[in-house]
Amino acid sequence: MKKTLILFVVALVFSSVASAQIKEDFVSLSSNQWGKEYPKANSEGYVRNQVYAPQACRVEFQINGKVFPMSKDAEGYWTGTSTEPFDEGNHYYAIIIDGVEVPDPNSRFLYGSGAERTQIELPAHDQDKYALRDVPHGQIRELYIKSSVTGEHRHIFVYTPPMYDKDLKKRYPVLYLQHGYTENETGWSRQGRCGFIMDNLIADGKCVPFIIVMENGETSHPFTMEERKNGSMNRQAFQKFPEILIKDVIPYIESNFRTYTDSRHRALAGLSMGGMQTRQISLAHPELFSQIGLFSGGTISEKDLQENPEFLKHNRLTFISYGSREVENPRWTAPEEVVRKVKELGLNAYYYESPLTAHEWQTWRRSLYEFAQLLFRK
Amino acid sequence: MKKTLILFVVALVFSSVASAQIKEDFVSLSSNQWGKEYPKANSEGYVRNQVYAPQACRVEFQINGKVFPMSKDAEGYWTGTSTEPFDEGNHYYAIIIDGVEVPDPNSRFLYGSGAERTQIELPAHDQDKYALRDVPHGQIRELYIKSSVTGEHRHIFVYTPPMYDKDLKKRYPVLYLQHGYTENETGWSRQGRCGFIMDNLIADGKCVPFIIVMENGETSHPFTMEERKNGSMNRQAFQKFPEILIKDVIPYIESNFRTYTDSRHRALAGLSMGGMQTRQISLAHPELFSQIGLFSGGTISEKDLQENPEFLKHNRLTFISYGSREVENPRWTAPEEVVRKVKELGLNAYYYESPLTAHEWQTWRRSLYEFAQLLFRK
């Protein structure tokens, strides 16, 4: 009994300290729909939400799958604050009304984690990297091409740099840039903000202007849920996608955009599953891509180089990155160490670690920001 | 008492006839998210929905603001069917969980009626007009330009026809195409499917290839809800937008795309509020646009021509359209009659009426399909 009381007192003190620690400087999020006050975040990354639901019995919200309770006032407004802070950047998010998880009508939509859904965008100390600034802007172009491999229409986004439509004689290098598992071809231009990242780097003279091509690397319809469970996603991603990229996408881009057509001006990169695809494709076809980036998606190891001598011969840049919270995880072989070893073997390899972010878009925005500055320099 | 009984029997018979009349040929909608069975519609336009919500006390769904009840089975699935059919095409839609109206996570998102929200797309007898067909495809390009009028960044979508990037010497006419009140610059390429409509018309040799420019004609941030209530929306739409279009958008498009730069190759059209803006701007600046389209957005009348003689001198095409369910409404002056009269005065005017549709996207898709075939012919 005495022990219970002590625990109770300790818990009380701890909870008052914890809540005293939360700064009351909450602001509305940039991911909110027009005119909506909630959700909000404070400068530490705590998220506060409010939902008007006078007839509901329980209202909660979830961020990255973590559920937080809300409590109701006399007027029917439910309010709650996350009991932990979240990293800077973008997180998937929903509200839960009497057990039904639904998108928050206050928030804007993106495709991520297997569906179009709502998200929160937490302010970041380095958000100017991907902000809409007063600089010349490129275009994000949406196009459809028919695949000779699958017979289906492929939905593709292409970033062209600011001056692309001005000097019609100039040619550009191309980066093929892939999303991760359960994301799609919209990810890099929406969550990833690749257009703004490029516009800003080009305006600041920090990168060579290039084109970015963003394809769906996972699967297209029609695939049933059953087929997905049976592994069809992986067959599409690792068997069909390389073929689609090489036979359909690259020839289309090189004959419909003003690109260079040699491997020196052709790069491949991706995040998570897209990094694994980059590794697979560039090791199998080292003559096609001279520069690669793997963001939270594996490494090129000493063993890879020994087994693929052609890769070392052709590769001019190998960029490996992770979020610091990913490599803290003891299950991982330290990627920095792998990169150090392949550099000794003569590979022009770079390692970047995004501070205090995990397997999430903030890591990948920063990775692109760093990678783009190294690309097509030699 | 006897009367009540008779009414009850009549109601019973009527309801059994009504439900007997609903065809059980429900199919999943093309607007559903990947792998989602519900919502469904039958061939008559009735909509059936199902939501898993074992803990909820009441679940409903609404289409265009009309609410339909759902009932719960032993496993916690709520199912309901609309008690009336809906027109072919696109309608805004939401589910309601214990009184909280939220987007349906089963459905895809669009911006419409003042927010990003879910929608249903009902099959239409003429859906091939706006289907993704196996034809050459143009591009929808997303760009940002800074306005000299407001100092803000304007978010613009531009459709370029299939061969735009091939023959770099060819120039194109331009249609400036505006959305309606509480919609935005995304409407015409998403709900309106203008890219597919143009690709199909061009492939079928039914229209002269041209560029389409889609701007936000209402308002951009930052506008508070208070300002909107006070009419700032209208000030922006009818005072600022004409200036933004003429001073910022047209000069940018004509110096960054391969366009003709004379009024003969410049058209303006819009739906609803966009039609009213088209009327306002083209009457005030008849020298700028030789061809105009007003879709569910008013007419050019005899009085307009008398008051604006320059308009008749410059105009080469005036296209007026409505959904048949709009002009059934006795409040409206019959637009067909207005068009007949201005034709007598020498205006090259056309009238189109979309069969069995109201003030909705199916009317406007069909209007664009008809209008595009007449544009830039003379």
Please provide a written account of the structure:
Two copies of one chain form a homodimer. Chain A is globular, with a radius of gyration of 23 Å. The first copy, chain A, has two domains: 23-123, Sandwich (Immunoglobulin-like), CATH 2.60.40; 128-372, Alpha/Beta hydrolase fold, catalytic domain (Rossmann fold, 3-Layer(aba) Sandwich), CATH 3.40.50.1820. An eight-stranded mixed beta sheet of chain A has the order 12-13-15-14-16-17-18-19, with helices on both faces. In chain A, strands 4, 5, 8, 9, 10 and 11 form a six-stranded antiparallel beta sheet that branches. Chain A has ten helices and 19 strands. In chain A, 46% of the residues are buried. The longest helix of chain A is centred in the middle third of the chain and has 25 residues, at 232-256. Chain A starts with a helix and ends with a helix. Residues 8-18 and 221-225 of chain A have low confidence and may be disordered. Chain A has helices at residues 2-21, 194-203, 225-229, 232-256, 273-284, 302-307, 309-314, 324-327, 335-344, 361-374; strands at 27-28, 40-41, 47-52, 59-63, 66-69, 71-72, 77-81, 89-97, 100-102, 109-112, 115-122, 139-146, 153-160, 174-178, 211-214, 266-271, 291-295, 317-323, 349-354. Chain A is an alpha+beta fold and 378 residues long. In chain A, helix 2 runs parallel beside helix 10 and helix 4 packs across helix 5 (273-284). The interface between A and B is large, with 51 and 52 residues. Strand 12 (139-146) of chain A pairs antiparallel with strand 12 (139-146) of chain B.
